[in-house]
Amino acid sequence: MKRIFLCGMTGCGKTTVGKKLAKFLSLKFYDLDEIIERRKKMKIEEIFKKYGERKFREIEYEIFNEIKERKNCVISLGGGAVLNKNILDFINKNENYAFYLDVTLEELKKRIKRSFLRPVLKKLDDVEILYNKRKKIYERIKFKIDGNKSPEEIILQILSKIDFKYYKRICEKPHKFYIGNIKEFFEEIKKEDSRIFIITHEKIKNLISHFYDLSRFETIIVPEGERAKSFKYAQKIFKILLDKKADRNSVILGIGGGVIGDLSGFISSVYMRGMRLFLVPTTILSAVDAHLGGKNAVNFIAKNIIGTFKFPEIVFCDPRIFVTLKKEHIIDGFAEIFKTALFDEKIYKKFKKDFDKLTNPDLKTYLKWVPITGRMKLKIVEKDPFEIKGERMLLNLGHTVGHAIEAGSGYKISHGKSVLLGLKKEIEISKNMGIIDKEFYKEFKKIFKRIEKFIPDHEKNNLKKFIFMDKKKKENLIKIFLIKRPGEFEFKKIDLKNFPLL
């Protein structure tokens, strides 16, 4: 049972945060002020004007007592509700989670000025008076959260304070893949005799710090984006590791998305001919694809030209971190889930049923689909870990054209969206070669139409140049799996001179 109370000054974002938090945790959301307005059929301002603040507080307390015992919900309280000691004492009880969204006075003034003055604020100068009057009371609330951040980061702070006892071993082979509480993961690896070197971005470091103090480890910061996946940054990291006397028993811990996974895997595989490797994905795409299976690379002219196979000892995912993801990154993860669902008819049926949830996911959706997708990928990898037999090449569905689109755009089009565009093109190739089932083709077209709004246009003129750099190429032939229907594929070798790009 979860009962979460959000408190703070007018303009601190309780309603915005509350709605998003409730959706992510699949809880009900109640706004005390909105309930009062519906019940009295009057705006809060009108109640203040007609009856005065004292009468309003009586109404507020009466309705609070009606809703306070509701279970599995997020309740946003009015700015002055906790002035009532009975309300303050109740929300601070052990079984409740009470959060004070602490916003600086300067930021509050900006927000209130952008919207409108509340009932107890006749002019903007009143904000400071009210702020100083209430702050000591707010400080008595169980948890204080930095409310100056974005709604998503505020939610992440809240999630870090709420019990999360989920733990699941998804796979043990070809490497460990677990889901759970990232704080517990850090506590466990801190017991390691090995020195741990974290590779991450500054932004990710700050987000993870809400769960665990990363200053306990040695941290190497690299810039965001594909430019970090280069020899230039690999050399910088090698130099840092040498200067700090890292050895083969040291651990590289990559925390981030696909770029961090690739760079960390590459570094750990070649420094002193091999270090230990742990990975923590912070995007859906890295959790269901990029961090799994042991492939790594840096870019050289084209994407992933120089790389190795290096299986991590463990990939540990805490999907609460995904609450901070923007829509474009959610769609990137969706792309890999969609691709993987095509490998199995039963999973594909589940995918169709959960389509809307996957494009607008909550924590339950992540806890369901990260294991499904990860398990399917690692099952294929285990059969052909070093892509020798050919079975693992199935995982490249959508990637032959997708990587060319991504590189051709100068990496302006993300990996996930490039894979969706590549998947669409490879479906068309399958149709033109008479392979794809006609009914499935129609169904795919309908599904793709629903996600087209998330995908940008792309230049097609220079794709052939990058297709010729594809790692699956042998002389002038490209090896590719073409889909017949979910769970059924045909392996083809296509002459690159005639590769149907346009």
State the main characteristics.
single chain, Rossmann fold, 502 residues, alpha/beta
Please, could you describe this protein's structure?
It is globular and about 85 Å long. Helix 1 crosses helix 8 (151-161), helix 3 (44-51) crosses helix 4 (53-67) and helix 14 (327-341) packs across helix 17. The relative contact order is 0.08. The strands form 4 sheets. It has a 7-stranded mixed β-sheet, with helices on both faces. Strands 2-3-1-4-5 form a 5-stranded parallel β-sheet. With 502 residues, it is of the alpha/beta class. The protein is 46% helix and 18% strand. It has 3 domains: 3-161, 3-Layer(aba) Sandwich (Rossmann fold), CATH 3.40.50; 168-329, Rossmann fold (3-Layer(aba) Sandwich), CATH 3.40.50.1970; 397-498, Dehydroquinate synthase-like, alpha domain (Up-down Bundle), CATH 1.20.1090.10. The termini are far apart.
Secondary-structure blueprint:
Blueprint: E1 3-7, H1 14-24, E2 28-31, H2 32-40, H3 44-51, H4 53-67, E3 73-76, H5 85-91, E4 97-102, H6 105-114, H7 126-138, E5 143-146, H8 151-161, E6 168-171, E7 176-179, H9 182-189, E8 196-200, H10 202-208, E9 218-221, H11 231-243, E10 251-256, H12 258-270, E11 276-281, H13 284-290, E12 295-300, E13 302-309, E14 314-317, H14 327-341, H15 345-353, H16 355-359, H17 363-383, H18 399-408, H19 415-432, H20 438-451, H21 463-467, E15 473-474, E16 477-485, E17 488-495
Parallel strand pairs: 1-3, 1-4, 2-3, 4-5, 7-14, 8-9, 8-10, 10-11, 11-14
Antiparallel strand pairs: 6-7, 12-13, 15-16, 16-17
Helix pairs in contact: 1-8, 2-4, 3-4, 13-14, 13-17, 14-15, 14-17, 14-19, 18-19
